[in-house]
Write a structure and sequence with these properties.
alpha/beta; 38% helix; globular; binds zinc ion
């Protein structure tokens, strides 16, 4: 495997620091090296420092000129729904015309239309569409994603989605961390109690025995899964050795953040309606909040989660795209950085810490990815700008120069 030397980066944004998620003021310290260099050997970061030092050690390494460019750890997107069939263009246009969610669902739209298309899709077609999404992620500088099932809602269809993720890991450079989200919605054909039993007694044991997921998630919300159903399903998942992530407090403040704290969940995601008590409960239990401003934006809402209060309370905030066909059709972490700064009043530095090192820890991969430090995987992106703040500032403009996974160039202009 060839060695690679990145030299003369305007800013090498390392995020080196303590071996744990960043909180409070730590989120503003990105440990930037100006005129920085990095030597990569065997897919890992060997040395990092001032460019002239790296040059001395470069030997016969392939040199990549970073002059006038920013180098950043690959983005870690800790909340996506990567695998689904089709799109939701009809819903999108209806929403633009001002129709309500209820009216759109009655017209055959909503999550159910994606479930029907995903069930009807065979493995090859589902995999082909997922690979298209994977390329979009890589082009935007994302090198690891968490991905949820949840558009199957039968045992076989949920397994089908998780197996597609396994193949993405084998056949593409993107690292996919699989999450079982059988409790995404209650299928039309089942009564709620019957479906909860199906998830607990049939789906979870199969997912665990085939090692198809690391995490279990649930959509805890009025009209989906209530607090008691959520507790039941997630407790069963925990017994089988799965870690927990949760969709909570998106539409109503239903006590979901508190439940995430009670259950010792790794993350609580969305949190648009979470109040001070929810924030305090997450802090006490060490739950990482995963904020998804893309879905607030794409739904035309203005109800963003209270990012500032969460950072001030000492929570290790994570940002993610929530990539999905209904409420957040974007894979672009730079777009999320823009939304975090303009809509949630995070600083560009905080937003970058939230989408790299903190996200990596939320996926239990903080020792391996999320920052540029010796010994870590050489997953990084080079951007055509001189200052990392430009990534959040020039919104809607692609700035990716090239993207590397384990020292290999996998995407770029
Ligand atoms: Zn989601």
């Amino acid at each position: 495997m060839k060695s690679v030397a990145i030299l003369h980066a305007s800013q090498l944004v390392t995020l080196s620091g303590p071996k744990r998620p960043r909180i409070g003021g730590e989120m503003s310290d990105l440990a930037v090296i100006r005129d920085g260099g990095m030597l990569i050997r065997a897919g890992k970061i060997d040395i990092i420092g001032p460019s002239n030092e790296i040059e001395k050690n470069a030997g016969d390494a392939e040199v990549v000129d970073g002059a006038g460019k920013v180098v950043l750890p690959g983005f870690v997107d800790a909340h996506t729904h990567l695998v689904f069939a089709g799109n939701r263009l009809e819903d999108f246009e209806r929403r633009a015309r001002g129709e309500t969610y209820e009216k759109i669902a009655a017209a055959g739209g909503g999550i159910w239309s994606t479930v029907e298309k995903t069930r009807a899709s065979n493995d090859a077609d589902l995999l082909a569409q997922a690979k298209k999404h994977v390329n979009w992620f890589l082009k935007c500088g994302t090198t690891t994603v968490e991905a949820k099932s949840g558009y199957g809602l039968t045992l076989e269809d949920e397994l089908k989605i998780l197996r597609v993720m396994r193949r993405l890991n084998q056949e593409t450079p993107l690292e996919v961390v699989p999450t079982f989200l059988g409790a995404h919605a209650i299928p039309r054909e089942d009564r709620p109690s019957v479906y909860v039993d199906l998830v607990i007694n049939e789906m979870l044991p199969r997912v665990a025995s085939e090692k198809l997921a690391e995490f279990c998630d649930i959509f805890c919300e009025r009209g989906y899964f209530d607090i008691e159903q959520s507790r039941k399903i997630l407790s069963a998942a925990k017994k089988l050795g799965l870690k927990l992530r949760m969709h909570v407090d998106q539409l109503t403040n239903s006590g979901g953040a508190k439940l995430a704290a009670d259950l010792g969940a790794t993350t609580a995601d969305h949190l648009e309606k979470t109040d001070e008590q929810g924030i305090a409960a997450m802090k006490a239990a060490g739950v990482q909040p995963v904020l998804l401003p893309g879905s607030v934006y794409a739904l035309g809402s203005t109800s963003y989660p209270r990012a500032r209060e969460m950072i001030d309370a000492g929570l290790a905030v994570v940002l993610a795209t929530d990539f999905n066909p209904g409420s957040s059709p974007t894979v672009s972490m730079p777009m999320i950085l823009s939304l975090a700064c303009t809509q949630m009043k995070m600083s560009p530095a905080e937003a970058i810490a939230a989408s790299t090192i903190n996200a990596a820890y939320s996926l239990q991969r903080g020792e391996k990815i999320g920052s540029l430090e010796p010994g870590k995987l050489a997953n990084f992106s080079i951007f055509d700008c001189e200052d990392y703040r430009e990534l959040a500032y020039w919104f809607g403009i692609p700035q990716t120069h090239s993207v590397y996974v384990k020292g290999e160039r996998v995407a770029g202009a």
